[in-house]
Amino acid sequence: MRIVFTLFIILLLFFNKGSIDFEYSVERNTSIETLDSPPEFFVLKWEKGTKLFAQKTDLYIEVDSIGRQEVLVLVNENKTPVLYTSEIATPVCADGECKLMHIKFYWTLLGEYAGFDRNIELPLTKYDHDEFQQSDYQKLHELLLDDKSVIGRRSLDQLVDKPKMRSVNGVDAISGATVARVKEAVVSGALYSCYTAWHMVYGDIQEKLKNTTLAALNESMIMEMLYSRNQEYQIFALQKIDDSKYEEHSKQIAEILKSSTPLVRSIIVKSFIQKLKKEPELQRPFWNAFDKIDIGTRSMLLKQLSEAPSFSIEILSKKLDKMSKNQLKLFLDNLAQKESIEPEIRNILNSFVNLKNNPNTYLVTNFLEDREP
């Protein structure tokens, strides 16, 4: 069976000779050695003027009956790795017909899906031989963004109703209607192509890519990740950055606190006070960001007050209207530990008491009454 299928693939390659070489796009003036514009479907930020150069790795993806598909690393002009990529040609067989699916995948340095480029001259096709439309490629991209997709938890025969197996030239071919709960996630008429693409992206190659990055990790790579907009990169960089570099890059870390997700913010809030203890003034942007972050992170930040510089109290006193009832209690409990309240702080508290339409002013009123000389 394998010999027959291999001969089929050889013939398919032969008849496609001259058009099988993959190019990023007919509009791009690039080759397989360089990438000077973002992939057509891409999840990362692409800085204008970026130019990436392909270098070989020891990694590959094993494609059944085709063989090894090499994985390249794309580096910038400073030789810093930026992306991994692999040009894939894999057989897709359905309803008695087999074709090669041509696609170029990209992964982040942590092995996460980053995007793909289609082959303009060899487009993907559906069950009824219609070529993928732009909307179909977009839907495939959205599917590949979902690392928890149902097609990752089911075998192919579980995704079709009453699958019928046929043998064509010794190759098992599948036909059947896609089950209802999967239809919304995949390109209509292209279940097998979507299934194949997803499992290539999320196969064991992911772990291999991450391990390759870890083995080559250096300060330049960590900084590239820290200044990216990718959440996974930010988390990784925050966990890897040397304490001695935390002060130097505190401004960027404070910006991440304001703009990133609650998960990334929680990592920052748990560590920034200790890492900036020798330079407390560098903490100021973090406390200034209080009203720019989500309610959960605000509560975490307030719990750090006992170890925070004194100026944090003044900063937060001007943001009382952004606090929930429990957060205001946390702030006042911390303030109660002080031997005295500075006049400026007391004036701010008195101003807050006079606010209308704030249900929590009574907490401050009670606090001030208890603290009267």
List the helices and strands and how they pair.
Blueprint: H1 2-15, E1 34-35, E2 41-42, E3 52-63, E4 67-75, E5 81-94, E6 97-107, E7 113-118, H2 134-145, E8 160-168, E9 171-178, H3 180-183, H4 191-201, H5 205-216, H6 219-226, H7 231-240, H8 243-246, H9 250-259, H10 262-269, H11 272-275, H12 284-288, H13 295-302, H14 311-317, H15 325-336, H16 343-353, H17 361-370
Antiparallel strand pairs: 1-3, 2-7, 3-4, 4-5, 5-6, 6-7, 8-9
Helix pairs in contact: 6-7, 7-10, 9-10, 10-13, 16-17
Descriptive report:
A hairpin with a 3-residue loop joins strand 3 and strand 4. This protein is an alpha+beta fold and 373 residues long. It is built from 17 helices and 9 strands. Helices cover 40% and strands 20% of the residues. The chain has a 7-stranded antiparallel sheet, sandwiched between helices. The longest helix has 14 residues, at 2-15. Helix 16 (343-353) crosses helix 17. Mean pLDDT is 84; it is low at 1-31 and 167-177.
